[in-house]
Amino acid sequence: MAHVLIMPKQGNTVESCIIVEWKVKEGDTLSVDTPVCEVETDKATVEVPADAGGTVLKILCQEGDDVPVFQPIMVIGKPGEDWEAAVKEVAPAAAAPEPAGASAPVAAPAPVAVKAPEPVAASAPVAVSAAATEVKPVATPVAAATFPTPIHTGNEGGWQPVSPRARNLAQAEALSLAGIPGSGPAGRIIEADVRAALEGRPPLTAAAKDALRAGGTMPAQGTGIGGRVTLEDLAAPQASAPAMAAAVGANVTVADEYTDTPIKGIRKVIADRMMGSLATTAQFTLNASANATHLQSLRGRLKEAGAAAGFGKITINDLVLFAVSRVLPSFQYMNGVKLDGVIRNYSNVHLGVAVDTPRGLMVPVIRNANYKSLAQIATEARSLAEACINGTITPDQLTGSTFTISNLGSTGIESFTPVINAPELAILGVCGIQPKPVIVEDDAYDIQPHLGFSLTIDHAAVDGAPAARFLKALCDAVANIDIWIAR
After folding, report:
1. Which of 77, 260, 424, 472 sits a CA distance of 20 to 30 A from 359?
2. Other beta carbons within 10 Å of 391
3. What pTM did the predictor assign?
């Protein structure tokens, strides 16, 4: 039987992957290790191998689809083999309504006898909503749930199958199914088809949707905020901008231009995790600063000697990572995670380093940082950041952190509230270096550079005073970083 390739699970926390690019097409001949597609998880971009040799019989998902793990994405076999039977054998649930944004790999539904609606006199056209024209199939020996309910969409051929999810979404958004091409089996209109049609339509207010369901006419654009279609737009359709300008002169209000970006992929996962972190932890932020005079001086000397010494460029962030790795073991209550009502504290420091990438925020991990030198930490941090940006980072390199550091200092931020990388207990935000007055001898003041820190803790696991003691110790270590490196 033909081989059905399923979406592999890329790490314990990955529930779905977005197909970024298909590297093969139907009819191509593959070997076992041929990369067939590139998929994006919440952590990285990886290639999926064929896992079987043969011919590509069917590609079940499209580029951009967000596919749950373990769902069929491709069928490989001998030319002429029944790919539909193979999909049914591997994934019986494939006949259920398709996941959002993806075409469900189902067999083409068999014809269902339906009762045609009563003819309407041509001289008296009647606007009828999709819900009012729904016709239930005549009872057959096959379970009714196997087939989508056909409705009259106004498309060529009249009656067309529509999935329940597509029908419900169209009704919720007051979208007529007339003219929407179906990309599902046997021309079935699926949810992805409806969403594609909605992308080309301006947004509507709730009142406008109600009016549109009642038979209103959809204007080309709206006059509301961001081009939103209002009830007034439906009641009085707008003329084109040139026609309006000719009618009333130059003082014409034209709808704002805007761009909609779907929240999906890594951006959606980041949003979900941030909301989950805030919802499940009692987050509390402390702010402090460390004298950066010795820090800047040491960094300058290391920058000059780095190439000659063979350890490359050392940054301020590398020095902070080093300081945290040395201070945390003395404050073990800050170094851990909260799991199912249990606080687990670690002896070794596994530092998560927040990295800004074109696809969103990633947090690779420097494992056992407390045993690594400054040069080793700097080299590994740079290597992990490059892998995140290039999309070559692996899921294993993005899991297992016990404490995270997020640095916004290069942007000039003086303080911020970093969100805990759950299930960790704390996260350190590194801010910019700012001049501050310092008391010197004889009550005289001097202006010296200070590096700001914002420490967010889970107050359910760590109290404010112990967290403040850790932050004070870290500030002292940074202020005397040259001595700490000599330890």
Report:
1. 424
2. 16
3. 0.57
